[in-house]
Amino acid sequence: PGEAAAALARADATGDVGAASGSDGAADGLCASPTSQGSGYGGQVSCWAWGSGNAFGETRSIATPMQLQVKGRSLRSLGTAWDQTLLVASSGALWAAGINSDRCLFEDRPEGPQAAAKVDLLELDGLQVEAAAGGRAHIITILEDGEKVLSWGSNNEFGQLGHGGAIALARVGPRAVVLPAPRAQVRQVACGEAHSLLLTVAGTIFAFGDGSCGALGSGATESSAQPMPVDSGDLRALPVRAIAAGAQHSLALSVGGGVLAWGCGKHGRLGLGPEPPDAVLLPRRVSALLEPALRIAAGGRHSAVIVKNQRCLLTGSNDHGQLGQSPSQLKDSCAFLDLPGHWKAVALGSSHSLLLSRDGVVFACGKSDQGQLGNGQVEAKGCSDLRQVSLPPGLAIMGIATGPEHGLVLAASSPSGGDSERRAAGQEEAPGQQIMMGARRKASGNPDGRSAEEVSDSVLPGVCISAKFGDVKVSALQSWGKGAGPDGAKAGDEELFRSLIAMFTSPTLMNASFCFPGLDHPRLDSDGLVQAFDDLWRADVWSEKQRSQLIAAALQGLERWGGDPKGWKDSPPSLVHRDQVRGLAVLLLCPLVSEVDGSPDAYALMARLMSLIAALPQEGRNAFTDIVVEDLVRVLRSVLVLRVRRFCNAAVRKATQAKAISESVWEGLLVLDVLAHANTLIQQRTQKELIVNAEHTGQDNVNKVVSRISGRGFGGAADRQVDSGAAPATPGFWVPEATVPAKEFELECLAEGIVPPDAEFLLFVQNAQAKVLATSELLKLRPHDARLRSFVVHRQLVPATFLRRVLHVENHYRQSVQHQLVMQDAILTAVAGGQIQMTPSGGLANLDMNNFFLPINVRRDHLLEDTLQVLQDAAPADLQKQLRVTFRGEEGQDAGGVSREFFKLLGEQLFVLQSMFFDKVVAEEARLLWFDRASPKESVDFWMLGVVLGLAVYNSLPGLDARFPVCVFRKLRGESLGLEDLGELFPMVANSFRTLLKWQPSEDLEKGAANELFANTFCLDFTVSFQDEGQSRTKELKPGGKDLAVTLESRAEFVTLYCDWALTEGVAKQFEPFKRGFSRVCESPLLQAFTGDELSRIVMGETDIELDNLRPKVKYEGYTAASECMFWFWSVLQDFDSSHRRLFLSFVTGSDRSPVGGLGELQLIIQKKPGALQKGNKGRRLPTAHTCFNTLILPEYGSLIQLREALVAAIENTEGFGLE
Question: Do strands 343-348 and 332-339 pair parallel, antiparallel, or not at all (unpaired)?
């Protein structure tokens, strides 16, 4: 605490503190071209300096810039230390000027101020230096290619030299800084007062030195002599492209333009908002910056950022006007303030700011007691107004830098004048010929003409130009893949292999690689990446051993990415931004994870990847989802969903074999849920943009919108055509289906039946608490939450066939509960009356078995009346009992088949188009059943309809012959309805509305005239007319609707209100009792897992009868699949038309509909008639069936003709049940 307090006190000292920040944050723009040749300017590159003369060899203050003499040498870059100026010549030699403390610059010169000369330290002799920076008592240089870093200084009190070991208070000569990362190339150096930062080509930061204010970003205040990775807080796995060090604080710039800050927070220098902390120990994102940043700078007690539109924002201390604000009105700012103008670069000193304008003019503001503003004046008070630095004419400014109390520019002389003179003369520069901080401008891209990568190379402090950022480009993969020879080998294979190993082990490189170049926000080139990976894998350039090494590297990278999974339950990994999770999507696109079924290594990698994605905090999941929606649309279906679903299937199969469900199952399902949610967002965005574009630009532009959103054009089979005649999903315009059909998210393993439905029912009750969650709730759950440990909860991933089986188990469970209650009541009643009579087997002799069931005894010729009477007399609890149907006068016992026959016959009488329950117009036009708002039937009659429907579901009896539209079941599920549903019932009305919504006025009409023309054309108001009990009635769709004309702007509202009236409000009197009747029987929470479409298929069964799905699942008893009689049997069935196939299905099962999932779910049994038949008797007996058990009793016939005649006779002439 004492050390921290002392450091904070130093940070609050007067303006002569914090020059180290000037030595690198001020060095914003220190990199220039090695020479002026090729820059578009003809002169030599030189350095001009002003301010405190001690820093560049003068004994007095210099208020007007002076040229530093470097004996005719051209300069490559420059940097600053506390009281020194560092110059790198184009030859790679290090030159310096300033205070020669402890002879750290020149061994043969005294310790006072020294003019510019080549640094003569023996350890530097013959070395090529590319960049340099320094602090109060230390200097760090990057040698050529960034493969070596040297540091030295007058002391190593805080370990700021990064040599490791013990600290030193005396002079330390140049020695190598050893990083813990092997073969790490350093791209940039930045020095604070007593701490140092290094940025590698992998985008990772290492820090060492004074940590008392938290400037090392380690989460603690201890100093460190050993370079430590800064990979905690908001910097975890975040690729960084630039760094800056203030006196006691640090800044980082991510590849996505985000700014992170840590260290001393006094005076608001970190820009983190109100009530700034004294110290921030872990890197924290500056969330107030809404635009991507291009440059950062850190000073003594203030910081600066230049964002993409060339605005400069400053925060921190303003005691001398260094923020460009009057100190009398603003002392400090804890938020970034806008400085008027357009700026290329900024550099910060202790208490002054230096800026380079878009026009190439240098300005300064702030402290000026030593001429720091370079305007020829020394002022006791600071200046908040921008003052132009008095540089000679004819200079092209290539870079700016500041020390604590001095300023520097790197400039090239030009015979034709500098940037500002050219502009003033009206001379146009050829594209690519204009120097801007040492880099060529691009003709397009960012507002200043350069890509983010070029900005990094040209303006960031202490940059080693030859150490290129290590991200892997898609183009590199493509060139490697296309260059493979016929035998799969080529010279670049080892280079590619090493690059991929380095990338897979580095989360920062993974997050930075494979993006489109030149964008403000990185965007993953997913299409190009998948193609490049495919080309490489097809070329087969690596051995199995090498592939295993790649997988091992990826596993190592994932471990670094998320840390120890054991801690994720209490503290999820701090991965919240796109730039921190983009690489996870890259791994999903890599073929390494594609073979989870056959490769244990691939399965292990995918399992770890699923675990990390599932463990992301909510912000991280949102960021990952955004990447999928923005960058991965084109590969969502073909790669992402396919691979994650394949993994989930493999994990479930492994779990069934091991008889224990691993965490990998639930983590994989959660990731697949995230992809399904992203798919929904893509659909919604497509819908929204289509509607907007259709309304404003018409049909012709819609295909372009879909092409842009989905990432594909039109014309191929896979393309989604916009058909103006298709049913619209939302009033306004028809919208294409989601990029991935919902069916493709479903797990095949569940449809195959390898997970017992009774086991899933237990999981649903015990873990999910018998509750189906909405998607929004589901995606908020952490992976360890027990509610995720049920398949049904992951609703979008579960096939309807599996849901139906689980529902069947639940129905049996509920019925067994009713059995137990009946038994308890019977026992209690018998005990109370003293009438207990036991059977020899130990049961109750006087127990009425009918009490265990809901008995329905009906006459075939009075089916409707008898059924209604039973349902009206039944208590609510009776409706929860198992159904038992008997037809009076028939011997059949109901084990399921009689009930199916009952519902089939009931449907033929109750759910007919001519019924008084249903709308005659809909029945005639759409051939569907819809509630008649003018029906004479009572509410109890509609209640009975709902009960009958509910009984069919509760007793697992599909095949009710009721032609309800899907929207009825969507209403039962509480789903919203719209124009598509209206079109199912009233196709002519819906088509009229589509015409209404697509109508477009002439483009030259003004808004008011267009509305008037629309109103006069269609003559509509907000009312609807209908017939009620023979009377014509009018209903207002909104208050005052009869006086409101429908206009161009309000037409969508009119359609929405009409749909709501026709489908909801207008039939509420009939539908609500119907819904109550259905809910009286079906109270299962499992029903919430079904969509309206799935529920309709459960009630009414599948209409398609595909024998190809039935045949493989048949069980033979007495026959075999190869029996001659079976060959004839299947030939006869194949020849049947659809009506005879339905008759056959009804004959065998009691229903002419397939169960959900098709005939493959039926499990038909074909049994040979027992007992030997004489040869002459073959064909004389007809087939019979046990409908309760889906069993066909088929005699052995002598020919195909005999079998056909007997089977047709049986299915066409059968009614009633008997006993054998």
Answer: unpaired
Give the integer Cα–Cα distance in Å for 305 and 346. 8
Cα 366 to Cα 372, 633, 1065: the distances in Å are 8, 50, 70
In whole angstroms, what is the distance from residue 922 CA to residue 907 CA?
18
What lies within 8 Å, CB to CB, of 724 at 6+ separation is 699, 734, 994, 998
Q: Can you tell me the distance from the alpha carbon of 209 to that of 194, in angstroms, rounded to the nearest whole number?
A: 6
Closest by Cα among 1107, 1109, 1093, 1161 to 751: 1161
Contact call for residues 347 and 297 (beta carbons, < 8 A)? yes
Contact 155, 213 (CB under 8 A): no
332: left (phi over 0), alpha (psi -120 to 50) or beta: beta
pLDDT at 1175: 46
Packing angle, helices 663-697 and 642-658, rounded to 10: 160
Give the model's pLDDT for residue 1103. 59
379 three-class SS: coil
Q: Which residues have CB under 8 Å from 837's CB, separation 6+?
A: 830, 844, 845, 846
What is the number of other CB atoms lying within 10 angstroms of the CB of residue 1160? 17
Give the Cα separation of 836 and 735 in Å (integer). 69
Which residues, 6 or more positions from 608, have their beta carbon under 8 angstroms from its beta carbon?
555, 558
pLDDT at position 654 over 70:
yes
Q: What is the pLDDT of residue 686?
A: 80
Helices 702-710 and 663-697 cross at an angle (nearest 10°) of 160
DSSP assignment string, 860-902:
GGGHHHHHHHHHHHS-TTGGGSEEEEEETT-----SSHHHHHH
User: What pLDDT is recorded for position 1031?
Assistant: 77
Instruction: Tell me the β-bridge partners of 1034.
Output: 1025
Q: Is the pLDDT of residue 815 over 80?
A: no
Q: What positions carry a catalytic annotation? A: 1188
Whole-model pTM: value is 0.78
As given in the structure block, the two tokens for residue 993 are 């509305």
Tell me how crowded residue 550 is: count the other CB atoms within 10 A of its CB.
21
At residue 289's C-alpha, the angle toward residues 470 and 387, to 5°, is 95
- DSSP annotation of 491: T
Higher pLDDT: 756 or 899? It is 756
Which residues are registered as beta bridge partners of 118?
A: 95
Residue 638, both tokens: 């073909």
Q: Given a cut of 70, is residue 932 above it in pLDDT? A: yes
Residue with tokens 């790649």: 550
Per-residue pLDDT, averaged over 428-446, amounts to: 30
> If we measure between CA atoms, which residue out of 604, 605, 567 comes closest to residue 586?
605
Pairwise pLDDT comparison (898 vs 1035), residue with the higher score: 1035
DSSP 1064-1114: TGGGHHHHHHHHHHHHHH---GGGGGS-HHHHHHHHH-BS---HHHHGGG-
- The neighbouring-strand residues paired with 229 are 206
152 strand-pairing partners: 139
Cβ atoms within 10 Å, residue 215: 33
More confident residue, 1159 or 57: 57
Helix (H) or strand (E) holding 336: strand 332-339
Contacts of 1182 (CB under 8 A, 6+ apart): 1195, 1206, 1209, 1210
Pick from 669, 674, 560: which is nearest to 617 by CA? 674
Helices of type H across 379-462 = 419-425, 452-459
What pLDDT, in 10s, does the model give residues 68-121? 988 878 888 899 999 999 999 989 999 999 999 999 999 989 988 999 999 999
Pairing of strands 435-436, 439-440: antiparallel
338: three-class secondary structure by DSSP: strand
The pLDDT of residue 452 is above 70: no
